[in-house]
Amino acid sequence: MPTHEVTNQVPPLRGYDVVGSDPVLVEALARWGSTADAADLHALGHLAGTERAQRWGEQADRNPPRLVTHDPRGVRVDEVDFHPAWHELLTVAVGHGLTAEPWTRPAGSGAHLRRAVGFVAWSQVEAGHGCPVSMTYAAAPALARDPEQAARWSPLLASRTYDPGLRRAADKAGALAGMGMTEKQGGSDVRANTTRAVRAPGGPLPGATYRLTGHKWFTSAPMDDVFLVLAAVEPGSPSCFVVPRVLDDGTRNVFALQRLKDKLGNRSNASSEVELDGTWGALLGEEGRGVRAIIDMVGATRLDCVLGSAATMRQALVRAVHHARHRHAFGRSLVEQPAMTNVLADLALESEAATLLGLRLAHAVDEGETAFARLAVAVGKYWVCKRTPPMVAEALECLGGNGYVEENGVARLYREAPLNSVWEGSGTVNALDVVRALSREPASLEAVAKELTLSRGLDARFDAAVDDVLARAEATAAADPLAAQFGARRLVEDLALVLQAALVLRHSPAAVAEAFVASRLAPERGGRCFGTLAVDLAGRSREVVDRAFVG
């Protein structure tokens, strides 16, 4: 048809190195990682940018998992049927060591940083399969509390072999892990859980064995091989149990999948309700100390919430910049239009600061900076996850109507964007966790203050903001806990901004640092929406955009 000549449409975003085109990843790897890891990560980045990998992501999202409760004979099987693309995605993630491998490498080797770079890159292909990847990574430090359980499961969780078949641990080449905490009567208040455990010595598992009965309201990735589950041995504080899907005698453990959740985003990943009815579990740690045992897992999954949200931001930014470079209006490309340059530069600042913070947190794990990580992970989880939905929404708008169409990729990112702010503790839960750390673990604030001190003297506005937020943090630590709750979110927001600013001032180019500090720490120079950088930042805003996506 003569009317069907296609002009001014943007070419597909394919054939680029997701790692190599991101200067924040490249620089962090050089600064905190090992050059020995570079080749493998760039190979992963090249694969992430291919049409093949992008098709896997689209197929996994468009073909959600299907619950199969019974076989044709009516025998209960409780399995989840996935599209083949899901398995392709997990094969790559596991094969590149994005699960529990870092916990098996020497301290100080940069293994967690390497894994964080890979996780940010590969999560940009599709986010849903990152859930079992993340929980498998996070299970290892919790299992380390019990040498017998660690010896049994950690090598499988760290394996680079994706082995999805349900078999006993002794017959597996690799395994994935999940967790079961949330229940119907309350998600974050795990001490209100009603799942009960009864001692049953001599069961078909190593260690102290128990039978568990209860209903878990949100158990993601229910096809995994082993789960950490909270249950109370008697009314009171819950204990933590290692619950495998298949017992040592080869029989299936009772793990009845009641239904899969119909979710806003993260649709490729199966989130389920699970019924436990005499389910076998082995005690991890001490009775009544389950929250303490599983908190190691929660801390690591919260780190992945930061990294996963940074990945979502990054992919939205890349698609917006790619579109603006190839789309023309009023005689020139969109990226050359000053109003659009302002928007893209502002989005680039948000993305760089989020990614840089996430990688710094991974480096803290490498270096054993537990006090710093204790506070900074909760701060980062709150702020980066909160910023992702508005950031992705603005990136979507850069594509106009094309952004609202599923086939262009940004719509899926928008549906995914709120997820990490909900998982592993909502924003309020994380804000209150920060308040708790300030009052109960003063070393955590001291460690964050030390990190901020490294950037003092680089910008007077930053110095003033640090003085203010540290004074308020110290006052909060000494305040009545209930009184401190009302201002918790504002305090955490400001802690996050000065922490991001400290990192940007030290590690990012001057144009990025100046624009970030001016717009985030001097509110009078930036508006409430993205794309409202002050006019005097216009001169270097294009430099910020050009740095954002090297491609």
Distance between the termini: 34 Å
Beta strand % = 5-15%
SSE topology string: HHHEEHHHHEEEEEEEHEEHHHHHHHHHHH
The fourth-level CATH homologous superfamily of the largest domain is Butyryl-CoA Dehydrogenase, subunit A, domain 3
Helix-and-strand structural type: alpha+beta
The outline comes out as globular
Q: Level of helix content?
A: 40-55%
Query: In DSSP terms, counting alpha (H) and pi (I) runs of 4 or more, how many helices?
Result: 19
Kindly report the average pLDDT value.
95
Rg over alpha carbons: 24 Å
The CATH class of the largest domain, by name, is: Mainly Alpha
Outline the low-pLDDT stretches: none
| Multimer state | single chain
Stated plainly, the CATH topology of the largest domain is called Butyryl-CoA Dehydrogenase, subunit A, domain 3
How many structural units, i.e. domains?
3
The largest β sheet comes out as:
7 strands, mixed
Based on the coordinates given, report the CATH architecture of the largest domain.
Up-down Bundle
Number of strands: 11
Question: What does it look like?
Answer:
There is one protein chain. The protein is of the alpha+beta class and 551 residues long. The protein folds into 3 domains: 126 residues; 118 residues, Butyryl-CoA Dehydrogenase, subunit A, domain 2; 256 residues, Butyryl-CoA Dehydrogenase, subunit A, domain 3 (Up-down Bundle). The protein has 19 helices and 11 strands. Strands 3, 4, 5, 6, 7, 8 and 9 form a 7-stranded mixed beta sheet that branches. A hairpin with a 2-residue loop joins strand 10 and strand 11. Helix 10 packs across helix 17. The two termini are 34 Å apart.
